[in-house]
């Protein structure tokens, strides 16, 4: 039997890692750390730092780094985004299975460090399900983590929702395709490749934007879109050029939340 723990580690800030996550890390026989290419080496470095700081001596946990398969982004332009993601998940599941067979042939406990929380726009649970569907005896445990959405609202010092009003969490792709979600007073947007908010009426939309949340290079901008839209797009491009990658998120509303 393999026990696979998906451990939410927040947004890279050591202070955001829960005690439950620390216990799960220290109970693992093997921790798998994905390499996502040189451009995102910061993310691997942060995971290494978390292991270095949080694993208790004497460290007996085997830390294994592996190259994460790449998604075929070319299929996105051919309107086959879901197919590309499905094949990508299958490739990742295959790599996980090979590593588990190699390092835990007789069973044991595997830890996966998941950015943010495993439940919010992360596919670790879906990939893990593929292992079970392939006939592997896998017990899944989920350790919740602080999400980028929580850090965004905390850093901007705002509530997530307007008083007694609903919130919708969506993606940049959906916002571009469908516009403002019906019946949503506030909209949280994740996985935006850049500037989906420019499709909205700039005079009637307020934005709270954040990049690299929880990290030392965190950047925050807020205001009406007609005042800050160009500033966000320019700053985002500068940060991506400087660091080689970017992770950002934003909250939209028809009026300030306070």
TrEMBL record:
Pfam families: TP_methylase. SUPFAM superfamilies: Tetrapyrrole methylase. Pathway: Cofactor biosynthesis; adenosylcobalamin biosynthesis. Gene3D superfamilies: Cobalt-precorrin-4 Transmethylase, Domain 1, Methyltransferase, Cobalt-precorrin-4 Transmethylase, Domain 2. The keyword Transferase applies. One of its GO terms (biological process) is methylation. GO terms for molecular function: precorrin-6A synthase (deacetylating) activity. This is Precorrin-6A synthase.
């Amino acid at each position: 039997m393999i026990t696979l723990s998906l451990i939410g580690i927040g947004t890279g800030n050591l202070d955001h890692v829960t005690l439950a996550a620390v216990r799960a890390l220290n109970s693992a026989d093997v921790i798998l750390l994905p390499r996502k290419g040189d451009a995102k080496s910061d993310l691997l470095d942060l995971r290494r730092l978390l292991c270095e700081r949080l694993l208790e001596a004497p460290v007996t946990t085997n830390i294994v780094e592996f190259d994460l398969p790449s998604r075929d982004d070319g299929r996105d332009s051919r309107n086959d985004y879901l197919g590309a993601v499905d094949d990508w998940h299958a490739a990742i599941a295959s790599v996980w299975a090979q590593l588990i067979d190699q390092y835990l042939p007789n069973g044991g406990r595997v830890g996966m460090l998941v950015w943010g929380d495993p439940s919010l726009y992360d596919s670790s649970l879906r990939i893990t399900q593929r292992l079970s569907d392939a006939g592997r005896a896998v017990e899944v445990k989920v350790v919740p983590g602080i999400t980028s959405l929580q850090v965004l609202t905390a850093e901007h010092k705002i509530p997530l929702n307007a008083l007694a009003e609903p919130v919708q969490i969506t993606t940049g792709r959906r916002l571009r395709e469908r516009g403002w979600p019906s019946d949503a007073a506030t909209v949280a947007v994740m996985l935006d490749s850049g500037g989906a908010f420019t499709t909205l009426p700039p005079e009637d939309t307020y934005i709270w934007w954040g990049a690299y949340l929880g990290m030392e290079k965190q950047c925050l901008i807020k205001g009406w879109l007609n005042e800050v839209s160009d500033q966000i797009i320019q700053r985002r491009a500068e940060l991506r050029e400087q660091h080689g990658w970017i992770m950002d998120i934003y909250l939209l509303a028809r009026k300030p939340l306070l």
